[in-house]
Write a structure and sequence with these properties.
14% of the residues lie in helices and 34% in strands. It contains eight helices and 22 strands. By secondary structure, it is α+β, with helices and mostly antiparallel strands. A seven-stranded antiparallel beta sheet has the order 9-10-13-12-11-14-15.
Amino acid sequence: MRYLFLLITLFTALPGFAKQAPAAAPRVESFSPQGTVKGVRQAAARFSEAMVRFGDSRLEAPFTVSCAVAGQGHWIDSRQWVYDFNEDVPAGQRCSFSLRQGLKSLSNQAVTGPASYRFDTGGPSVIDSLPGDGSGSVDESQVFLLALDAEATPDSVSAEVYCGIEGVGERIGVDVLQGEARRQALSAEVRDSYRYFFQRFPDEKAEAERLIVLKCRRSFPPDTAITLVWGRGIASPSGLATVEDQVLSFRTRPAFNARFECERVNAKAQCVPFLPMSLSFSAPIATEKAAVIRVIAKNGTRYSPEPLDPVKNPVVDSVTFRGPFPEQAKFEVQLPPDLTDDAGRPLENAGSFPLQVATDDYPPLAKF
C-alpha cells in the first residue's frame, strides 16, 4: 500500500494531470467617465481580453448609448472601444452605456460584470460673470450678470443664490431681474462694451436660458469685501442639481472722494507756481460737470481745466489746470453744486470744498 500511495502521488504531480483552474470570464476592465463630470467629449471602455479582430470593418459596438448628445463609437484595438460625442455634453445631462445583450469575447465567452455604466454632467455652474470674479470696483448697488453652462430653474436660483458682506453674518437674498429691469441691465451700451461676454450665447434662446441677471437685496458699503454664492441645490430642468457652493469674490469700490494735487519742493511747501494743479476723483464724473470746475485766485482770476471733449470722453476721473500761476498767491478750488459720480453717489468729502490752496515762491533756478 505504501508503494501504491507513492505512485499515485507521483502521477498527480505530473504536468497536465492536475485539474486546471477555469479561465476568468471576460469583463469590462475599466470605463470612463463615471459619476459627475463636466465637459465630457469622449467615453472609453477597456475589456479584459480581446473582443474583436482589429481591422474588421464590420466591428459591432459593444454598448447601446443613451444620451442627448449624439456621437460615434469605434474600436481602437482588439480590447479598447471609444465613443466620441459630436460636441461637449452640456451640463444637466445624464448619459448611460448598456452592454449589448449576449455580448461575447473573441473566444466566444460571455462578458460578465455590470450591465451598464453611467455619468452625468452635474447641475448648472457659473462659467463667467460681469463684473468678473475678483473685481475690486463693484458698485454699492451692483447688478450681476452670470453666464451659465446650462439652464437653471428660477425657483432654485431664488432659493439658493445669496450675497455675503464682510462683517455681516447673514445670507442676503437676491432678486432675479426680469422684464424691463432685465432689458435695462442688458442695454446696447453694455453689450457693446462687453462683446466677449455676450459671444458666449449663440442666439436669443441660449441667452434667455443661460444668462441670469440679479441684484442683491441690500446695498454694499464702500471698500468692502463681498461674495456672490451660487449655492448647492441649484437645479437644471432635468433635475440635476449642484452639489457644492461656487463662490465669486468681489470688493466694492472706495467712497467717492476728490483729491487735490500739485508739485511741491518739499512736504511743507505750497504749490510750485509754474507747474499744473490737478483734481482727481476716486470714481468717474460726467465730463460736462468736470468742465465747470474752477480754480479762482483771490484777485478774481479764474482758471479753467484743460479742454475736455464730452463726445470722445463722456466721463473723466481727473481735471488739470495749467499755470503759470502767480507766486505767493491764494486760490479756491470750486466744484459744481451736487457733484455726483457715474453711479449717482455724492462726494463724501464735499465739506472740504471750496478748497483753499496756495502757491509758493518761484524756486531759485526758475527765477534764474
